[in-house]
Structures are given as C-alpha cells and as structure tokens.
Amino acid sequence: MAQKRIGNFSIKFQNPPTILSTAAIAGTKEAEGRLGSYYDQTLRDERYGEDSWEKAESKMQKETLMTAVSKGGISLNDLDYIFAGDLLNQCAGSHYGMRETSRPFLGLYGACSTMAESMTLGAMIVDGGYADHAACITSSHFCGAEKQYRYPLEYGGQRPPTAQWTVTGSGCAILAASGEGPYITGVTVGRIVDMGITDANNMGAAMAPAAYDTINNHLADHNIAPDYYDLILTGDLAQIGSEIVRDMFHKDGIELAEHYADCGNMVFYQKEQDVHAGASGCGCSAVVFCAYIMDKLKKGELNKVLFVGTGALMNPGSLTQGESIPSIAHAVSIERSLA
Amino acid sequence: MAQKRIGNFSIKFQNPPTILSTAAIAGTKEAEGRLGSYYDQTLRDERYGEDSWEKAESKMQKETLMTAVSKGGISLNDLDYIFAGDLLNQCAGSHYGMRETSRPFLGLYGACSTMAESMTLGAMIVDGGYADHAACITSSHFCGAEKQYRYPLEYGGQRPPTAQWTVTGSGCAILAASGEGPYITGVTVGRIVDMGITDANNMGAAMAPAAYDTINNHLADHNIAPDYYDLILTGDLAQIGSEIVRDMFHKDGIELAEHYADCGNMVFYQKEQDVHAGASGCGCSAVVFCAYIMDKLKKGELNKVLFVGTGALMNPGSLTQGESIPSIAHAVSIERSLA
Predict the structure, then answer these.
(1) HSE, side-chain direction, 13 A CA sphere, residue B291
(2) With the CA atoms of A211, B74, B140 and B28 taken in that order, what torsion angle do they form, in degrees rounded to the nearest 10?
(3) Interchain contact B331–A (C-beta under 8 A)
(4) Could you tell me the pLDDT band of residue B1, with boundaries at 50, 70 and 90?
(5) Which of B9, B318, B320, B330 would best serve as a mutation to test chain A binding (most A beta carbons within 10 A)?
(6) ipTM of the complex as predicted
(7) Secondary structure class of A78 (helix, strand, coil)
(8) What are the φ and ψ backbone dihedral angles of A138, each rounded to 5 degrees?
(9) CATH code 3.10.20.30 for A183-335
(10) What top-level class would CATH report for the domain B5-176?
(11) How far apart are CA A290 and CA A266, in angstroms?
(12) pTM beyond 0.95, yes or no
C-alpha cells in the first residue's frame, strides 16, 4: 500500500504543511451578516469597480490572493503553485483572476467543495516536497451565479424555502512547508455520491449523503469518534442538509451535537436577511474557513477542525435532461499543534 | 527549496510512476481519420446509445476508464484516485461518467490541457506515495461542444478557416507506483499566458504562446535542447498554432524540426475531412496520447516524449464581455526506460 495512506481513503501527512496565512473578501450582504467583522475587506457594491459581475468575481480572487500573500509575509513569486476554481462556466472567474500572477496554475472544478479540494491537493503537493508554498483559492458571486444557474436578477424569480443564497466572496489559504501552524495533518478525498435528488433548489439535501460518506470514511480510517474534533465543519449544506447529516449519524447511534456545524448556517442571519435555507457557493466555505475558523484556530479557541467542503456536481443542462445531482465532499484535517 | 523541484518550474520524480495502461474511445469521424486503427473502440453513432450527446460523452468516459482498468490488469477498486475533467459546463461529462465508480474523485478544469494536467497531478500523487494507482481521464464531444461554445448543429453555421474541429473521444491513462514503463519522469506546470487574442475561432494562436512558455521553462530547468526528446508533442494547437510555436523557437535560434508535432494535426485527414485548421478539444490530445503515442512508446519507436497539453481558458460569456483568451500548457516528460 502507498506509504502515506491510512485506512481505505485517507492520507496522513509526514510533513504536515502549515497554513501560513488566509484572506477573505466578501460582498455587501455578507458584510451585514454574522461574520461581517472577520473579513479582510468587504465590497461597497457588487460590481467592485468593474463593468460586470464576472469581472468583479475575478477581481475579488486576485485581491484575496494578494492579501493572503501579503499577510503571509511572502511575495507572489514565492508561490510554487496556485490551485483555483470557481462556479462560472469553464471556471472563468479563476482564470481571469489569476491571469496576471505568472505563477504555475492548476485549475480545479469541485463546485462548492473547491476550497477543500484545493487545500487537499495543495497540502499533498507541499507535504510531498514538490512545493514550498501553494495558494488555494476560490470564489463565488451571487449575481453571477443566479444569472448562470437560475434566472437573471431582473426577472425577480421567487425562491423556494429550500433554496440557498450564493455567497459573494473569495477565500485564499497559503500553505507552506514550514511554519508555526495551524497544520494540515491529513486529508480524505471524497467519492461521487448521488441519491437521486433532482431539485436544484435543494442542494443541501443532494450533498448531505456525500458529506456523511466522507466523514464516515475519515473517522473509520483513523478509528476516531467525531469528538476527536472540536469541530466538524461541513460547507455548504445549510439548514436542511446539515440536519440530514445529523440524522444520518443519529441513525448510526452517533450524536454529532456541538462538535458539528455547517458553513451554510454561519454567513447570514438567515431569517433577518431572507436567505431561506442558508448560504452556498464556492465562496461560502472559503470565507467561513479563511476568515472565521482560522481566527479561532490562531487564538486557540479551536484546536482540531475537520473541514469538509461539499459540492453539487450537476449543471443546469444535465437537470433538464432528467439527471439527478451527483455530489462530493472532501475532508481536510486541521490541527493547531502537532502531536 | 522543495526537494523534488528542478529549476524554477519543474519537478523531477524520485519514484517515477509507470503508465500501466491507456485506453481511448473515439467517434465516427475520428474512426475514419489518421489514427482510426489505434482506438480501443469507435462509436457507431454520436449518441452511443444514449438520448443526448452529453450522456454519450459521459458514457465514453466510463467505458474508457473501464477499458484502461481492464488493460492494466487491475480492478476499479484498485484506483486510489480518479483525476478527471472535461469541457462541458461544470465538467458534467466527468461527473456523470465517474458517478458510479465509487472511487475518490478529484475534479479538474484545464480545458484542452486536462489530459496533461490530470497526468501531472496523478504522477505527483503516485510518486509522492499517496497512491498506488491513479486514473487520469478526460473527454470531449463535437456535438456537445458546438452546442455549448458556438451554435447548435442544426443552425448550419459556417466555420472560418482558422477554426478547429472538436474531437469526439475520451482517453484514460492509469498510473501506477510500480511497473515496466513507460515512466513519467517529470512535469512542468504551466502559467496562464494571455497575448490578447479574442477570436474563439483561432484558439491555436491563443494557446501557442502558453505552449512556448512551458516548453521553454522545461528545457531551461533541465538544461536540455529540444532534441533531448524524440518528440515534443503539443496538443491541440493544430495547423496555425503549431506553426506559431515553431516560429517562436525559430526566433530564438532553435529549430524544432522533426522533434516537434501537434496532436491537432494528427487526428484527421485535414483537407479530406474538412476540419479546417485541425482537431481540438480535451479528447484530442487524450486520444492521440492514449492510443497512438503509447503504442509507439511500447514498441520502442519512441523513447522520450514531452507531452504538452494546451488549454484555452475562456468561456463564451467572457468573450462577449470583451475579454481575451487566457491559455495554459502543462508538460509531462515520458521516458521508455529509466536512466
């Protein structure tokens, strides 16, 4: 068996990469939400000085990367690789955002699991001795996502109660071969899971079984219980999906209780801000992790976190062709200090 | 500096992964092309028994994976990771194609560079001791690509002479930690390069500078001349792009001569099959490498190949917003035997 594997699905790092720095930029609605004070920057308007929402999203990625690089005390040229992806068709948000970096670039598509996927691959590449520094970055934009996945905003479409609100935001984590931590101690790459959900307005339900599968695999591979972690943090299942995850574990006789939370419930004041089931989008788990969770890890208010990015892997056309929503979840184990 | 790096951009593997097996499935027009006899299977019609082109593409990926797994003498459960991506919005071709594998999945978006990108990451992950077996797979479908990127086929749009023809095909390579070779001895990850081309019907010209950049970086990092390789194989620049690459090196005083070819010129009989500038699509370099180049490597007719996947990273919407076409190229060094 490959030497760094543990169990059937997990990797335990021999040289755990440190999370050197993180940065997060978020939109106007996010600024008024629960984590408003944690972002490095919030937008004054959704265009961010650009002439389209898509260009605004690319600018967010670029500015978030530069902020993370600066907070890490390194320069752009220190980045051996950039791992990036987003929700726009052909991941255009990342490509235009990273176009001027002139650094080696590896494009990912993991839908809303992209932050965790980029940290998974970035951590392997740093642990493996292929890079001293890797940037992991993603973004989403409410207006661009609505236009692409649902209806133009001007149409004024009604959103069902199960719908989630795409976060306008970008998060970036810089991983490094050495440093003080927190560290990425392991990863569990997810499998595609499809339980037959066909409602694009109920993504949380579609993604919950993938989160359950990956968390289960991670716990089994390490032979640990959920309370090994201060927090198992999925994202972005929101209200409905996170309750399904709790229920699935409950049926196994496991209560996640206060050891579990979901990024989709943490960005907005759900009732007051009228976001229905909660938050979603690549930017959701990215800004929650990069702004809020990293702050708690650095302060010692959290010591061990399992960050489980979740993604719904359909496109609008596949649903009109009668397909259901395949989903995935990748888990990144983050610990404040090494055992 | 990270231990496995060489020069500014390249990786030299300490445990070079073997390419255990490859498989390629291609469409009806490809069956009548130059490499018709090399494919493991060719389609009888573009639907492949499915009710949409997109479902046909997913089925091609699935069948190609299963063929490669079978040719490698392993089972699906031996795959530690699947790296996959395609051109469909949100990479849906890969997600539906790989949905039933139940193996850890990492989604990529590299446009037509995806075969090389997946082999790059797959090789790092195998060399690094994270996997014994990794599958690297991609696909494209002419009908689905035309519908998504240009016009519905029924529209009967005219194609300009610079346009390329998207290959209907899928290629898969299984990488393994041990075996007889050919081996992946190193990789050079590309940077995004954008020289301001805005014509989506002239992708070859847009991508050529990215190919030049990556090949240059690779040669400089290893301090070798192009004739180190029996073949430097870009894909899919086709007629116009490949001539630009030759010209760019010529200006540096370097003649690529017979050490250089492009996958976009190898799939079709260009004049007779009326494909204008040549072939393109994720499937282009995938089927050329997996069907033809691997055959030549196994027979010893080629010993050292630098496989340089090229991708154009725009989407149709970004072009209508006045953007140019950012491009990328990733180089994979493949040698028949280890020095």
Answers:
(1) 28
(2) -140
(3) no
(4) low
(5) B318
(6) 0.98
(7) helix
(8) -155, 175
(9) no
(10) alpha beta
(11) 13
(12) yes
